[in-house]
Amino acid sequence: MTEPSSHRLTWLVLALGLALRLLISGQFLLTPDEANYWQWSRYLDIGYYDHPPMIAWTIWLATQLFGQTEFAVRLPTVLGISVASVYLCLLASRWFSWRTALQVALVSQSLLLLNGSALIATPDGLLLPCWAAACYYASLALEHDRLRDWLRTGLCFGLGLLSKYTMLLFLPSLFCCLIFSKTQRGKLLTWQPWLGLLAGLSLFTPVIIWNAQHNWVTFRHTLFQGGANTTSAFFTLAYLPEFFGSQAGLLSPLIFLLLLARWLTAWQQVQHPEERIRFLLWLSLPGFLVFCLLALHVRIYGNWPAPAYLTALILIAALDSLANSAGSRLWYCAVGLAMLISAGVMLQLWSPVLPVPVQWDRTAQETKGWDELAQTVDQALRTMQRPEQTFVFGLRYQVASELAFYMQGQPRTVSVNRWSRPNVYDFWFDDQMLLGMDAVGVHEYKGMDAILRQVFKRVAPEQKIVLYRHSPWFGREAVRTLYLVRCWGFKGGLRWLPKEVGDIRAVEARP
Question: Which domain holds residue 210?
Answer without folding.
Answer: 3-265+273-350
